[in-house]
C-alpha cells in the first residue's frame, strides 16, 4: 500500500526527470582537470570544469568553449570560458577542447568526432541536461562553434560565434539551431562580411525574415544588436566598431559579449524548439546573476591570463597577472583585461 505522500513524491520525481537528465545522473563524478581521449587514433585533450558545488542529481547545462588560432584549452579555461563561468553560478559544466595544431581545421570531420566523444562522456559520466548543450568561441573557435551547429543540431541548443568565419566547415546546416553572431566592423583578420555570411546562412535555416541590421562604423566604440523574427530558432546579430577581439567594447565601453551570450543561451532554453534534443521549454531557467558563491575556487594558480583575458574586477577569482607582452588594464569595477 503506497501512502499518499510517497505517491506524490514519486510523481514529482517522475515529472522532474521528464526533461532530459542524462545517464550519468547519480554517479559519482570525475574531477575537473585536463583529460585525454583517443579520437580516430589520435590523442586529444580537453579541460573539464565542473561547478564548485557539483550536484550529481541536478541536470547541468554544458558549455563548450573552443579556443582561437594559436590559442589552447588552457587559454579558454584561464579566461573563465569567455567570461561565462562567472555568470553561470553552479548551473554549468564547462569544457574546453584542444585543437590539433592549435586550430580547428576539422579535417575529415575529426573535430566533430572529438566533440561527439566528449558529449558521449558527459552524458554517460555526469549529470547533464541533454537539452542544454551550447558552444561558443572566438575566431577559429567561433568557426568551430558554427561547425558544430551545422553538424550536431540534435545536440547543441544554441551557439555564440564571436568573429567567426567558415573555417571549420559546415557539414549539414539544414536543421535549426539558435545562432548569435558578434563581429567587429574594424576586423582586419576575418572581415565582418564573413560573419554576416554565417548569420545569413542561419537566417535561412531558422526561417527568419530579413531586415536592416545596422552596424557601427569601424573604430566607433559602440555596438548595435538586431534580433530577427524567426519561425524555427532565434538569430541575433551584434555588430560593434572594434577589431578582431574576443571581448569587444561596445556602448560606453561596455563589455557586452559574455552577458549577451549568456542571455541568448537562456532565451533559447526558454523558447524550446529547434536545437538540442529535448523539449527544454519545461526546464527551470538557470540563474543568470553572479552570486557571491559562484566564483571559481580553483583557477589555474600558476597561469596568467592570456591577451584579452580577464585579470581582475570585483568578484574575479581567476588569475590576476597577464601573459608576457600584455598588462592588466582596468576597464571598470567589474572587469580588468590583459592588453
Ligand atoms: C541536488 O539537486 C537536486 C535536484 O535538483 C535537489 O533536489 C537537491 O536539493 C540538490 N542538493 C543540494 C545539496 O543542493
Write a concise synopsis of the structure shown.
The protein has 339 residues and is an alpha/beta fold.
Describe this entry's structure for a reader:
This protein is α/β, with parallel strands linked by helices and 339 residues long. It is built from eight helices and 14 strands. The protein has helices at 4-17, 73-78, 80-83, 85-88, 110-125, 140-151, 192-205, 257-271, and strands spanning 33-39, 42-49, 60-66, 92-97, 128-138, 156-162, 178-184, 208-209, 223-227, 229-230, 235-240, 310-312, 328-332, 335-338. The strands form three sheets. The protein has a nine-stranded mixed sheet, sandwiched between helices. It starts with a helix and ends with a strand. Mean pLDDT is 87; it is low at 4-18 and 278-302. It binds 2-acetamido-2-deoxy-beta-D-glucopyranose (NAG). 2-acetamido-2-deoxy-beta-D-glucopyranose binds next to loops. Residues 55, 57-58 line the site of 2-acetamido-2-deoxy-beta-D-glucopyranose. Residues 303-339 form the CBM1 domain.
> In terms of structural class, how would the helical and strand content be classed?
alpha/beta
Alpha carbon gyration radius: 19 Å
Our count of helices gives 8
Got a strand count? 14
How does the overall form come out from the CA principal axes?
Answer: globular
Give start-end ranges of low-pLDDT stretches. Answer: 4-18, 278-302
Content of β-strand: 15-25%
- Note the run of SSEs as H and E: HEEEHHHEHEHEEHEEEEHEEE
- In spatial order, strands of the major sheet run 1-2-4-3-5-6-7-11-9
Mean of residue pLDDT values? 87
Query: How far is the first residue's CA from the last residue's CA?
Result: 68 Å
Protein name: Feruloyl esterase C
Enzyme class: hydrolase
EC number: 3.1.1.73
Family: Belongs to the faeC family.
Amino acid at each position: 500500500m503506497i501512502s499518499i505522500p510517497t505517491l506524490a513524491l514519486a510523481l514529482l520525481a517522475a515529472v522532474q526527470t521528464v526533461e532530459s537528465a542524462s545517464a550519468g545522473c547519480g554517479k559519482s563524478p570525475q574531477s575537473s582537470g585536463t583529460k585525454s581521449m583517443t579520437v580516430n587514433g589520435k590523442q586529444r585533450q580537453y579541460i573539464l570544469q565542473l561547478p564548485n558545488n557539483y550536484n550529481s542529481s541536478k541536470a547541468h547545462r554544458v558549455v563548450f568553449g573552443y579556443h582561437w588560432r594559436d590559442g589552447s584549452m588552457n587559454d579558454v579555461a584561464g579566461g573563465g570560458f569567455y567570461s561565462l563561468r562567472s555568470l553561470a553560478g553552479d548551473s554549468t559544466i564547462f569544457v574546453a577542447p584542444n585543437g590539433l595544431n592549435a586550430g580547428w581545421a576539422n579535417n575529415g570531420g575529426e573535430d566533430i568526432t572529438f566533440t561527439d566523444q566528449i558529449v558521449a562522456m558527459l552524458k554517460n559520466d555526469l549529470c547533464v541536461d541533454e537539452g542544454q548543450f551550447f558552444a561558443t568561441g572566438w575566431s577559429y573557435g567561433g568557426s568551430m562553434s558554427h561547425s558544430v551547429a551545422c553538424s550536431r543540431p540534435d545536440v547543441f541548443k544554441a551557439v555564440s560565434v564571436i568573429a567567426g568565419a567558415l573555417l571549420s566547415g559546415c557539414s549539414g546546416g539544414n536543421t535549426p539551431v539558435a545562432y548569435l553572431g558578434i563581429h567587429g566592423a574594424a576586423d582586419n583578420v576575418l572581415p565582418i562580411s564573413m560573419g554576416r555570411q554565417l548569420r545569413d546562412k542561419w537566417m535561412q535555416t531558422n526561417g527568419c525574415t530579413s531586415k536592416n541590421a545596422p552596424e557601427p562604423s569601424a573604430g566607433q566604440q559602440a555596438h548595435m544588436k538586431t534580433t530577427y523574427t524567426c519561425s524555427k530558432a532565434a538569430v541575433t546579430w551584434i555588430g560593434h566598431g572594434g577589431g578582431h577581439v574576443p571581448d569587444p567594447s561596445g556602448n560606453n565601453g561596455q563589455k557586452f559579449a559574455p552577458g549577451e551570450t549568456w542571455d541568448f543561451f537562456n532565451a533559447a532554453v526558454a523558447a524550446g524548439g529547434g536545437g538540442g534534443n529535448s523539449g527544454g521549454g519545461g526546464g527551470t531557467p538557470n540563474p543568470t546573476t553572479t552570486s557571491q558563491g559562484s566564483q571559481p575556487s580553483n583557477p589555474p594558480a600558476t597561469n596568467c591570463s592570456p591577451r584579452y583575458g580577464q585579470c581582475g574586477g570585483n568578484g574575479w577569482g581567476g588569475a590576476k597577472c597577464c601573459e608576457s607582452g600584455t598588462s592588466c588594464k582596468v576597464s571598470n569595477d567589474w572587469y580588468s583585461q590583459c592588453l
